[in-house]
Amino acid sequence: NLMLTQPHSVSESPGKTVTISCTGNSGTIAANYVQWYQQRPGSAPTIVIYEHDQRPSGVPDRFSGSIDSSSNSASLIISGLKTEDEADYYCQSYDTFRHSVAFGGGTKLTV
Amino acid sequence: EVQLVESGGGVVQPGGSLRLSCAASGFFFEDHIMHWVRQPPGKGLEWVAHVTWDGVQTYYADSVEGRFTVSRDNSKKTLHLQMNSLKTEDTATYFCAKDIADRDYSGYWDLWGQGALVTVSS
After folding, report:
1. Which end of chain A is least crowded, N or C, by CB within 10 Å?
2. In whole angstroms, what is the distance from residue A107 CA to residue A3 CA?
């Protein structure tokens, strides 16, 4: 089964840059696209990055994504942090063989 | 208005059943894979199931396989999740979500419902 591991929490000051990692347990994480979702308390998730590094319209360019095949991991990078970025962030990918979807455990970002 | 609205949540005893519905509006429902995702109180997201645009193929998480059934009625633009043999660990807010791709899977889920709370307790 595809499993995605994220740090439980990260904290950084306003204006700084933070990186949230998402590590796959098997195969290559680059084989299937990774998405990133933001969830604020009491709300449904919203997408901030799709297909590893693509940004949906309306998402600030302070948000970016990357893939590192050597470490089998994906990253969400948020620069110029604002207090409004405080939220839980989840990586998500697809296990093609099992036709199942995996979410990371989520990372709580404190700004 | 483009939206998804879940209904059918509530309190049920262990071993009981519940049926969730997700009413879609404002887009061509019949062209999109639809998903159910759940979130236990204070915990992370867990994918539950998805159904192809035509309702022919369904896929489930191991934790619900054999107990839950996902279906859709494209004529009524409605997605369902029949939950049987419920366990206390099924307690969660259940979200329906729309895949942005046209009759394909993309991982980019651009529309989510507000969630329906299911509590399994004696």
Report:
1. N
2. 15
Give the SS3 label for residue B3.
strand
B7: pLDDT strictly greater than 90: yes
Check CB contact of B27 with chain A, cutoff 8 Å.
no
Lowest-pLDDT choice from A66-75, B19-28, B82-91: A66-75
In whole angstroms, how far apart are CA B94 and each of A11, A111, B21, B38? 29, 28, 10, 4
B24 with B98: CB under 8 angstroms? yes
Q: Which residues of A touch B (CB under 8 A)?
A: 1, 32-35, 37, 39, 44-47, 50-51, 56, 88, 90, 92-94, 99-106
pLDDT at residue B110 is higher than 80: yes
Q: Which two tokens stand for residue A46?
A: 């919203």
Place of tokens 């004529």: B75
Given this model, what pLDDT does residue A98 score? 84
pLDDT tens column, B95-107: 999 999 988 888 8
Strand partners, A36: A49, A91
